[in-house]
Amino acid sequence: MAKNWWKIAGILLVAYSIVGGFLIPVPEMPILNETIRNTYFHIPMWFAMMALLTYSLFNSIKFLSGFDLSLDNKADQSVQVSLFLGALGLLTGMLWAQFTWGSFWTNDVKLNGTAISLLTYFAYVILRGSIEDENRKAKVAAVYNIFAWVMMIVFIMVIPRMTDSLHPGNGGNPAFGSYDMDNTMRAVFYPAVVGWILIGAWITNLKIRIKNIENKQNYA
Amino acid sequence: MPRIYKALMSALFLFWANLISAQSVEMADGLRSDGKIYVVVLVLLIIFIGVVVYLFSIDKKVSKLEEKVK
């Protein structure tokens, strides 16, 4: 159990964010009303996705200096889990948008940006599937992964800040400023982010280990 | 004893009424005090705990397989 502490930590943090996210008072804002509580559940999906994609990037770079296939497996599995989290983020975001901005999909830069980044990573998965040879696949995927990560940062973090966006923290002003969140909200939001990153890491860890077992069985 | 009970109830009710009347923006404060929002929180917690228990059981199975393949 000692080496499982981070899984327990993730569970406790997310459980806290579920209880606190519903029961702790939030700022009263027109249009948003109670949906402001989505902040505790929708945004951590994106943070967890980006954390896993960054983990994937590090593994891809490490892979390129030594060509250890187990590193490539780590990069591959974390991209898959992050795509899942990104899909959840997109779906929850669409639902939220319908009831606050009035449409499931607006032409907001951040929406289109995340859609493009998700497609970039879908291409990563397709690219992997299209190459037969394990070593070649790993090398091409690792190089592509670096490109995809840079694109993701440009589309999610850079471009939305350069134009106007419906999302808070875009169009010049830094994210999570005092207009978007007060301190009681931060006390729930940041634990939720850390918790979901840990849960995402746990699922990734399971997938990596399962794939390792499969590989061992195939080559044994 | 019943008088204390009564006083307590009225204090609670006043607190609740205060919560509702003080809002200009419509929020679910009434929901939280007596609208059974706790039930929703518990349902979500049960689902989350269920998923977590499931994750732990997968984790255990994977560990066992790792032992076998090693």
| Distance, first to last CA of chain B | 69 Å
Helix content of chain A: over 70%
| Overall number of strands of chain B | 0
Shape of chain B: elongated
How far apart lie the N and C ends of chain A? 30 Å
Structural class of chain B: mainly alpha
Quaternary state, please? heterodimer
Notable features of this structure?
A: 220 residues; mainly alpha; B: 70 residues
What would you say this structure looks like, in words?
- The complex is a heterodimer of chains A (220) and B (70).
- Chain A has one domain.
- Helix content of chain A is 73%, strand content 0%.
- Chain A is built from six helices and no strands.
- In chain A, helix 3 packs parallel to helix 5 (134-162) and helix 4 runs antiparallel to helix 5.
- The radius of gyration of chain A is 19 Å and the shape is globular.
- Chain A starts with a helix and ends with a helix.
- Chain B has a domain at 25-70.
- Chain A binds chain B through residues 7, 11, 14-15, 18-19, 22-23, 25-26, 28-30, 33-34, 202-203, 206, 209-210, 212-213, 216-217, 220, and chain B through 23-29, 32, 37-38, 40-41, 44-45, 48-49, 52, 55-56, 58-59, 62, 65-66, 69.
Write a short abstract of this structure.
The complex is a heterodimer of chains A (220) and B (70). Chain A is built from six helices and no strands. By secondary structure, chain A is mostly helical.
Task: Compile the SSE list and pairings.
The complex is a heterodimer of chains A (220) and B (70).
Chain A: H1 5-23, H2 42-64, H3 69-100, H4 109-129, H5 134-162, H6 183-219
Chain B: H1 2-21, H2 29-34, H3 37-69
